[in-house]
Amino acid sequence: MQIEKQADMIIADHVRKDIPPGSISWKYIEQSVAKGALEDLDDYRAGRAVGTIREVGSAQPARKGKIAFTPEDDRTLMEWCIRAEQKGLSMKGNEIYKQLEEKVKLSVELRWKR
Question: pTM for this structure?
Answer without folding.
Answer: 0.42
